[in-house]
Amino acid sequence: MKYQAIKLVRRPVGDITSDIFERVELETPALKDGEFLVRQTHMSLDPAMRTWLQDNEDSYIEPVRPGDIMRAYGIGDVVESRNPAYPEGARVVGVTGWAEYTLGGEDMQVVDRSVDIGALMSVLYVPGLTAYVGLIKVGRPVSGETMVVTGAAGSVGSLVGQMGKAEGLRVIGVAGSEEKCRWLEEELGFDKALNYKDPDLGEQLAAATPDGIDLYFENTGGPIQKLAFDRMNRLGRMVVCGNIAEYNNDVPTPGPSWVDINLKALRVEGFVITDHYDKAEESTLAMMGYLQKGQIKFRSHVLTGLDSAIEGVQLLFSGQNQGKLYVEL
Amino acid sequence: MKYQAIKLVRRPVGDITSDIFERVELETPALKDGEFLVRQTHMSLDPAMRTWLQDNEDSYIEPVRPGDIMRAYGIGDVVESRNPAYPEGARVVGVTGWAEYTLGGEDMQVVDRSVDIGALMSVLYVPGLTAYVGLIKVGRPVSGETMVVTGAAGSVGSLVGQMGKAEGLRVIGVAGSEEKCRWLEEELGFDKALNYKDPDLGEQLAAATPDGIDLYFENTGGPIQKLAFDRMNRLGRMVVCGNIAEYNNDVPTPGPSWVDINLKALRVEGFVITDHYDKAEESTLAMMGYLQKGQIKFRSHVLTGLDSAIEGVQLLFSGQNQGKLYVEL
């Protein structure tokens, strides 16, 4: 059976552009014992993709190399199987690729077909595990604290902010448009949302955090990082989940001096979810709990057709996606 | 009874200079119930003193203000007491000041008179608690890992490196002279010592850490910070104990970009011992254990007379002290 897939043909220089990808036609393989074939139905587009394209062998995950099919997380149906753990007709989630079909792997998880696809993509799967590990395990929030989250209207940031409210924090979101800020304040219940493009961001941040900042959740990088750093309280935690503003820079912007990390006893800690797959079940239960109590709302930005990924992934870096970005195949 | 003390008269601009201090004569007070009078016998000089002099109300400890007696940690004898927990003749350690006498506080600890003063000052008290908390509690070393420690010939760094060896680490020390490097390698058993003044420090560090760095213990700041950062392994820890190279700068040098903190899942964590006094007993036991097994050697740099502190404290910032610096009164 023939199917469409998208390969990386060269690494990006600066921004991701369409010409680094190429559409190819492939044929599904004959299955060996233990293998199964997945027809992908929904494919997630995530900021981490930019880091997968870098020629960085030190990174947490193997880079996608020119000639490889572009990597993705996705949802699909098992259409043929020689593995009893993944029977024909099962719905699975896991690492797929920019392709209509993919050979399933043992790291795929079977999920219940009754779960809403939007909730699965936007709350329970990649963004949910990321938000759960980052906020709860790394950030260790304490009720009454003040949290600032950047990329607050993004797939992870919007969850982190709402979970923070559910955990009793005062939550300030930082986003890139007035529309996003309104959504955060009026729909998601953030205490305050700031537009990082406003020239007086520093003054606005100071006014919004009169008691300083205890927990900073970094999704973006950019000038807000230093502004927030300077307002951190003693024993504060800074969770480094992403730095999307830096991914297209060849020479990343320096971070704040470490003097205050010492004097204020701060903890600046990064994480990547590939180290935390063992917490997937715990995370799903926690996220289902927030959903059932009505503590989490989400919005999805859905594209259609495999090809839409090529231009679509760029929305993540221009900040034009509204909600969790994914492709329906 | 009259006694000598040294006051801060103005904050330093850049380096500490003698003219920011002034000698004064004071009179010991009459004791109220619960009070006790301590004649200081040994006074510790520590790099942290530079940060106490800064006009930084956000710091972990109240700044010393012009007009105040300069703060110190010290050892002394109770010479008069109206507090049964601190009887006359007891030896105590705690926060004293640059003064021959001081009113004791409830935060002082009585210590056994049989303990060697050099060991108490150099291994068991301030540097020991700092090294113990920083390496064991914050750094969480795992046998077989590679550690780089800066300020390695200093009071804290020399303990951290030797404790690292005792815990099964490969230990690379960074210090500021050939003599110090020889001492680290030949006397203290460091696997390698590097002189940060060598122009090819980066190449030397790379050669000394062929498997990368798992644990970085920062006492100094300076260019070594970024060189080490770039060699950190995934899930590495960077313990920020001090930044002595930065204390005399008005505008501290920026730190490394946070992109790799995310991609390598690094933890950069600062600490100050005032948050960890509750671990003093645990720390003393652990440090006594290392001493008894012959795993820790120390050297003390002893000055004489209260006045010697004024010039003596500057040795810490020029790197000219050889071992733990303290004053015998």
From TrEMBL, chains A, B:
SUPFAM superfamilies on file: GroES-like (SSF50129), NAD(P)-binding Rossmann-fold domains (SSF51735)
Chain ranges of the Enoyl reductase (ER) domain: 14-327
Pfam families: ADH_N_2 (PF16884), ADH_zinc_N (PF00107)
Top-rank taxon, per record: Bacteria
InterPro entries: ADH-like_C, ADH_N_2, ER, GroES-like_sf, MDR_fam, NAD(P)-bd_dom_sf
Any one GO molecular-function label of the UniProt entry: oxidoreductase activity, acting on the CH-CH group of donors, NAD or NADP as acceptor
UniProt entry keywords in alphabetical sequence: Oxidoreductase
The protein's name: Enoyl reductase (ER) domain-containing protein
